[in-house]
Amino acid sequence: KVPTLYPLDGQQRLSTLFLLHCYLAWNIPETEGVSQPWHAFSYATRPGARAFCQFLTKCRPDMAPSTVSEWLQDQADYLPTWKHDPTIQGMLVMLDALHQRYSAVPPEKRRTHWERLIDPAHPAIRFHLLPIRNSSENNTLYVKMNSRGRPLTEFENFKADLEALMRENPAIADENKRHFSDRIDTVWADLFWNYRGNNHLIDEEIMRYLRFLAEVRAWQQKLQVNHLSPNDAQELARLAQSLLGPNAEHTGASADWMCRALDVWLEEAAPGQHKPRHVRALFEQWFTRASTTATEPLRIFNFRDFDECEIGVDMFRACCNLYGTRSWRLAHTLLLYGVLHGLMAQLPSESFAPRLRLLRNLIEASQDDIRAGERNNMPELLKDVELIMSDGPLADIKAFNQVQVIHEAAKREFLKAHPSLQGTLHHLEDHELLRGGLTVFDLNPAQHANTFAQRAAQFSALFAQSYSQVTGALLTQNHEGRNVKRNAGYRLAYLGAPKQSEPWQNLFRARRGEAPHPSSAALMALLDALATGKTLPAVMTEFIEASDTPKDWRYYMVKYPETRTGDSGNHVIGPGAGYVMVMLKGDSCDYRSYHYDSYLLALAQEADMTLDQIGNERWPRCFTGDGTGERHLELKRSGIKIQCVDAGWMLSDLPIQDIQCNAFNLVASQHALQNGLCAVPQVNGIDTADRITIGAALLRDLLAAGL
Q1: Three-state DSSP class for 634?
Q2: CA-CA distances (angstroms) from residue 260 to 281, 374, 631?
């Protein structure tokens, strides 16, 4: 059987080659009336051009006219309609160009060119052949090729390999093989065309979504997933072998699932015909990124790097644009999978909202529990997502944060007792700082409905103010924050930051073993106090001026706002009354980071010191270490160092030169310094006088004395 050549591309070049054969053959007398192999050249999809090519093979133009086209158009078999066919008109132009090129060439040279053109051993023109494995592919192969002869892209190579992989696997249903092959170049391509990049290709976008599907499926089967691999094509090819290769398990189910996971983004346009859904509108129906009074659509977080104008809440677009980058996190995978699973299960629209709300709450509470890699728990988390979207029992949820799971059960019990508060509770969940977790709130079902509603309203009003004042006001209610014990009685206290919201989110997020939440009692007491009409400054002033308020670390943090200016809101507090206190830059003690000393900062501020009077480089965030070592405020002129200690203020590096020494001794006698210690009156180790006031008076006198 003689093989058939199906050209993959190059219409204009192939047409020119055919016309060259025609023109040179017209100059060779012995070719007249003889059938030639090149006469088989034909336009399969253009009837007019096909008929014109057949017409040319039967012609023998007179070479005398200045143009060949004049002679051809003057023939009886030349159809009038051909003058409106751009392909035929282009071929006429090319024939005229050939005639002009060869009109001055001697006949013997034309014969040489003709013989070189048809030489079977050393032809002037050669073809690169691509053997086709299956003859049934030849009808669609051209459609699947990139245009204008450019090399195939990574995706086109992957697509061909994937189809071959599916075709050769008998475990995959023929229906799914045909379904994938037909739709990957038609309606699915139309779907991703709406998400094409600036290069006007869909390759990267479709590969990212396919990788999302492949990784989810691989996690479900507990296969190896190189989630952090930057090479989409390479990793996708490896996953395809793992899921659909001859040695893979569940290949039929995997192929069927992936086809359905693509089909969910389509809708029926007519019986048996489909078109892409309006996907953005679908997600906007469920999600919002804005803070509103409405509880639907659901507010979602962790979308900092998702372009608001282009992506918004369209997680399908985000997946196409960002999957595999640092902007896309495992939390996004779980949320998108929840939507995908719900769509594939054909959940009624009214079921989506409560189930997505539960899923969002658990994802937000489990930021530290979502892992791939060595401690991968994505298989269990994906199983939990399916359970949630199927409205399964809360008790069966195992991989998500268990404190939050218990808390979700408490919410349900609370709403059973107070169904009218559902909107209030959901609105509170949508707060930027709470993000679905209300463990810091009192959800006792016996609580009066008005109390909860009142506290919810006060919470929103409270955190619309300065965060620094919130920290101070909470401390008036015996707030301890979240504490981590350290050596020698020191502790790391998370108290909330003055400007940034993330430390508050971390503080309010549920932690294992916290029942009740360590900030709950103080927060509820503060909200109740504010409900009586008190302001934050009034609450703090009342605390400071109360005669029974102990002057420990909490008193100084309330009175002196400088002690609450640390960016992280995290503090190292010493034992006892806490007269050693450091404000950290980050979440923990980093020996390479610089910290503030809370008491020294308040002391310098109260004494109105200027930078040219301070000898510490990088002041005020100039101390390193873990917060348990010595820290001093150094006077630039004299070199005297001042340290806050339990008993008061300890001075060191005292002057030894006569003039400075005399000046210092005079100040020391005025402030009753003994062995360099300026003692603060105390009872049972607690100050009875304000140590900042006492220390600032001493410091001002030292500076006034030229020290």
Answers
A1: strand
A2: 20, 30, 64
In the structure encoding, which two tokens stand for residue 238, read together?
């490896």
Strands (E), 655-700: 677-679, 682-683, 686-687
- The pTM assigned to this predicted structure is 0.77
CB atoms within 10 A of CB 35: 8
Distance from CA of residue 3 to its chain's centroid? Answer: 52
Q: Which of 210, 197, 193, 216 is nearest to 155 (CA)?
A: 210
Q: Per-residue pLDDT averaged across 220-248, rounded?
A: 89
List, in order, residues 6 or more apart from 182 with CB less than 8 Å away. Answer: none
- Whether the link from the prior residue into 681 is cis, omega within 30° of 0, is no
Query: Is there a contact between 640 and 695 (Cβ–Cβ < 8 Å)?
Result: no
Burial readout 245-260 (b: 16 or more C-beta within 10 A, e: otherwise): eeebeebeebbbbbbe
Q: Give the 3-state secondary structure of residue 3.
A: coil
Neighbours of 696 (CB within 10 A): 20
Residue 252 one-letter amino acid: G
Q: What is the pLDDT of residue 235?
A: 87
Task: Give the residue ranges of DSSP H helices in 614-689.
Answer: 658-670
* CB of 264 closer than 8 Å to CB of 340: yes
Q: Give 138-163 pLDDT, tens digit per residue.
A: 445 544 554 444 566 788 888 888 98
β-strand partners of 678: 649
Contact residues for 464 (Cβ-Cβ < 8 A; gap 6+): none
C-alpha 614/C-alpha 641 separation (Å) is 10
d(CA 587, CA 216): 32
Answer whether 609's CB lies under 8 Å from 703's CB: yes
pLDDT higher than 70, residue 639: yes
Return the bridge partners of 643, or none. 650
Half-sphere CA count of 477, side-chain side, radius 13 A? 21
Check if the beta carbon of residue 661 is closer than 8 Å to that of residue 655: yes
- The mean predicted confidence, pLDDT, of the chain is 90
